[in-house]
Amino acid sequence: MEILKLDNVKKYYGVHTNITKAVDGISFHIDEGEFVAIMGASGSGKTTLLNCISTIDSCTAGHIYVGDKDITKIKEDDMADFRRENLGFIFQDFNLLDTLSIEENISLSLIINNEDPNKVDHKVKDIATKLGIADVLKKFPYEVSGGQRQRCACARALINHPKLILADEPTGALDSKSSKMLLETMADMNKKLNATILMVTHDSFSASFCGRVLFLKDGKIFNEIVRGNKSRKEIFDEIIDVLTLLGGDVGNVK
């Protein structure tokens, strides 16, 4: 089942003869249960593309479907409801509220949606148990470890059972140990909870956790790697080869 489909998506900035083609005719799809990375050098269009998919920005031309809904045709007044019902987000700095407990951070979107309090309690405990943070629900973000805060952010992204989870450079502000912990949690979300995840990253180590990697160059798809039965080390090496062709950064697998 297709969760996300892009059909000849374009995003241009500027006017007349001074036009920048940030996204230039991109088409691809993501099936339910996939974990996909988008990579590319700075200016390749990866963040602009994610902004269009997340409805933060609108595309100039083309169509983007989440499930059976064409998000390019959703009215502005209905956009917030669409995001809340269909998309989950994992932010680089996690955006947890320090004045709320871990439990309250996870349940906030359900409360805003006027969900039945008994259902809220059940859903929070269920997802917290699956992600291993049930024992810290009453604590505040500053009282728990970095890894527990990461899992709280993942639980918050999953709580509404979104069709698609979007992550923009989620490890960008983390050290190598914390990055690996977060990526392992996201991989578990994908494998054990069948979460469909699209992650934008510049980091080859992060992308090696994914089942498929799309590479952008000058607003277009340059290459694609499918993991299949390959090991993470094997797909990491392939990512390095493509990044070398792109002139991108090369990291070290851990």
Explained architecture:
This is ABC transporter ATP-binding protein. Keywords: ATP-binding, Nucleotide-binding, Transport. With 254 residues, the chain is of the alpha/beta class. It has one domain: Rossmann fold. The chain is built from 8 helices and 10 strands. The strands form 2 sheets. A 6-stranded mixed β-sheet has the order 6-7-8-3-9-10, sandwiched between helices. Strands 2-1-4-5 form a 4-stranded antiparallel β-sheet, covered by helices on one side. Strand 1 and strand 2 form a beta hairpin. It is globular, with a radius of gyration of 18 Å. The C terminus is likely disordered.
Which key features would you list for this structure?
254 residues; alpha/beta; Rossmann fold; six-stranded mixed sheet; four-stranded antiparallel sheet; 8 helices; 10 strands; disordered C terminus
Topology:
Blueprint: E1 2-15, E2 18-31, E3 35-39, H1 46-53, E4 61-66, E5 69-70, H2 76-86, E6 87-90, H3 102-112, H4 117-130, H5 146-158, E7 164-168, H6 176-192, E8 197-200, H7 204-207, E9 212-217, E10 220-226, H8 232-246
Briefly summarize what is shown.
This is ABC transporter ATP-binding protein. By secondary structure, the protein is an alpha/beta fold. It has eight helices and ten strands.
CATH architecture group name: 3-Layer(aba) Sandwich
In round numbers, the mean pLDDT is 90
| Helix fraction by DSSP (H/I, runs of at least 4) | 25-40%
Uncertain runs: 250-254
Q: Estimate what percentage of residues fall within beta strands.
A: 25-35%
Radius of gyration based on Cα positions: 18 Å
Oligomeric status? single chain
Overall number of domains: 1
What is the N-to-C order of secondary-structure elements (H for helix, E for strand)? Answer: EEEHEEHEHHHEHEHEEH
CATH class: Alpha Beta
How many DSSP E strands?
10
Instruction: Give the distance, in angstroms, between the N- and C-terminal Cα atoms.
Output: 33 Å
- CATH names the topology as Rossmann fold
Characterize the largest beta sheet: strand count, sense, and whether it forms a barrel.
6 strands, mixed
Structural class: alpha/beta
* Name given to the CATH homologous superfamily: P-loop containing nucleotide triphosphate hydrolases
Number of helices: 8
